[in-house]
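Per reviewer request, we include the raw input and output of the structure prediction for the construct analysed in the revised manuscript.
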Amino acid sequence: MNQSKKYDYRVTQDSTGWTTQIMRRVSSKKTIISKSQSGFASEAEAQAWGQNEVKTFLQNLNLAEQKKRRDRKDEQGV
């Protein structure tokens, strides 16, 4: 899987099933949980959800960056 340095996911098992957490790296020493979902019946389901969510986060991030670039160009009159 192609993962970025800023976003990643972690799959853990607890008493109710499998849990996936989407983690965002804030600094070199600090990471926060951006999104979490639990209750998966299998590890494969949890991994699939995690991969999909990381992909969605990266797509949304790229779209936001593109919009900022376009807005800057519009302000400059290009």
